[in-house]
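Ligand: uridine 5'-triphosphate. Inputs:
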Amino acid sequence: MATHIVALGGSLLRPEEADQRSMWFGQLRQLAVHFEGNGRKLGIVVGGGLPAREAITLARSSFTDSYRLDTVGISATRLNATILQQSLLDVGCKVSPTIPTSTQEATELLESHNIVIMGGTTPGHTTDAVAVALARDCGAPHCVIATNVTHVHDCDPRENPDAKPLEEITLTQLAEITGTEPLGPGESAAVDPVAVKWAMKAGIRLAVLDGRDLSILEDALEGKPFVGTLVKAE
Ligand code: UTP
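Predicted complex:
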């Protein structure tokens, strides 16, 4: 049975408008029901978004050790994972009742459940890297990174208004854009450099897309052409 892995950026769980929030959750629930109805398995790794950043900022007023700050961030990713897990259990999906704390545990849980939802694992990377590691461990050939930008750009669009969206690149080209330095606690980038490094090592193809529009995520999961950046293993 085909297993698909998605990194779901934490910001996606909190669209600014309240009615957009319930619409987004409703569409995600539909997507999950449809997906498992077609006999496929889904591993979702949820990011920490706003609660992670808030918690890390709060913790920073008391200590600065990166390992400890990352530990705080991880707990926020698990909070978001729990919201999604309970939402999918509520519509009767066969979701693991346990939130795994490692990708090995998640891989085992995927043997007996259609859907496994998790957050972070250990300090030193973000949930993008966890999703790539989960794809590697459960033998998935690709990993979807659903975020709140439409594409990977050739340079940071927050700093450069002329940044160009890229439709197809290689992991080597992506590594040139993200750099290889791991991000600090709570720092964000189009794709976590550690995730890129692990994807290169395991030969995992990435699809980076805008998860605010779940029809794009569905296209990528169905193997159809999608709006976003396809990152080929080579
Ligand atoms: P996220 O995965 O949420 O980072 O982890 P992000 O890239 O900001 O993603 P969005 O905003 O949700 O899309 C939040 C923080 O939690 C810690 C790191 O400090 C990270 O910055 N973390 C997360 C870990 O240390 N290890 C993990 O496995 C996951």
